[in-house]
Write a structure and sequence with these properties.
There is one protein chain. With about 220 residues, this protein is mainly beta. The chain has one domain (about 1-210). The protein contains 2 helices and 13 strands, in the order E-H-H-E-E-E-E-E-E-E-E-E-E-E-E. It has helices spanning about 15-20, 20-25; strands spanning about 1-5, 30-35, 40-45, 45-50, 65-75, 80-85, 90, 115-130, 160, 170, 190, 195, 200-210. The chain has a 5-stranded mixed β-sheet, with no helix packed on it. Strands 1-3-2 form a 3-stranded antiparallel β-sheet, with no helix packed on it. A 3-stranded antiparallel β-sheet has the order 7-8-13, with no helix packed on it. Residues about 95-100 have low confidence and may be disordered.
């Protein structure tokens, strides 16, 4: 989350981006401008939380106080209202350790059983600004589904815990009532078909295994 009002004390957005860790710099092209609490932010899409512990914020000494987590749609009810769980923007790939006991070693630790390997997954929620979201028709993928639009009802969303990740802090919402990032879950809202519906939504995940490199001087 980059505060565009203060630029965190930097002279320009370019100067601010240059101070970010390299991974954060690579994610900047995927970010969108949003207004939260009357303040303009450049942020990664997803749900926004008031950060309960900003000690790990990459912008120091003036952290934004906010963080992003991504809602993953697990299922929808008859009206398209979602059951979701939360996943982080960047997460470690869940792998078994060398003993095969199913434990998930932390690849960020230098003592990890993966040794010099870091395995990461990047998650990105794609939400359309113009296309609405529909459920499949009863007759299959080629059957009419014009009556199956997914309603935008944040009050009916159910949150479950699938992978043990819970965002730290309190959920907040964009000031925008409509748009691809609207709502306390960041799932968006469109005024279409005489009701409020969700925009077209897909979660893209990309993963890779990297060699750990340590540089010193």
């Amino acid at each position: 989350m980059l505060n565009l009002e203060t630029l965190h004390g930097e002279a320009s957005l370019q100067d601010l981006i240059a101070k970010l860790p390299i991974v954060n710099q690579q994610l900047v092209p995927l970010m969108q401008i949003d207004v939260i609490g009357g303040v303009r932010y450049l942020r990664y899409p997803g749900g926004v939380f008031e950060d309960a512990d900003n000690s790990d914020d990459p912008i120091d000494p003036s952290p934004s106080g906010l963080l992003v987590a991504i809602p993953r749609v697990i299922s929808r009810d008859a009206n398209g209202v979602e059951t979701v769980d939360w996943i982080p923007v960047v997460e470690e790939i869940d792998t078994q350790n060398a003993s095969g006991d199913g434990a998930n070693p932390d690849p960020f630790r230098i003592t990890s059983s993966h040794r010099g390997i870091v395995a990461l997954r990047f998650n990105y929620p794609v939400q359309s600004a113009v296309m609405s979201s529909f459920r499949q028709g009863a007759g299959g993928v080629f059957s009419p589904n014009g009556d199956n639009s997914n309603e935008a009802d944040d009050s009916g969303v159910t949150v479950v815990d699938v992978d043990g990740f819970t965002p730290p802090g309190t959920a907040t919402a964009s000031d925008a009532q409509f748009g691809p990032n609207a709502g306390s879950f960041g799932l968006g809202r469109q005024a279409a078909l005489a009701k409020d519906v969700r925009p077209f939504h897909r979660l893209i995940s990309a993963q890779a295994i990297y060699r750990r490199e340590i540089f010193g001087n």
